[in-house]
Write a structure and sequence with these properties.
With about 120 residues, the protein is mostly beta strands. The chain is about 0% helix and about 55% strand. A hairpin with a 6-residue loop joins strand 4 and strand 5. The chain is globular, with a radius of gyration of 14 Å. About 25% of the residues are buried.
Amino acid sequence: QVQLVESGGGLVPAGGSLRLSCVVSGYIFSPNIMGWYRQAPGKERELVALITSGGSTNYADSVKGRFTISRDNAKNSMYLQMNSLKPEDSALYYCNLRHPISYNLNYWGKGALVTVSS
């Protein structure tokens, strides 16, 4: 049973920083892609950033240059460093682990709330 648990969310003023963490337990298949997604009230869930098991990354245009995704495979963990936060970054941030080909291998955390005050 694969489980993902996010932490590090909170309330921060605009321009501030937060670091989200995601710890994965259970069997971790390889190769894999891990990612951060977010969903604001009344909006659809959107991709924030992805990182492959080989370390390649991809970012949404809205966060490029401000957010950095990383992972520590030895600790079964993934991180999202968020700098220069804006009120529009406020959302529930979800951690995701999936296989690049077998779409049935797709797991989500329960989310971490990030609120950026103006």
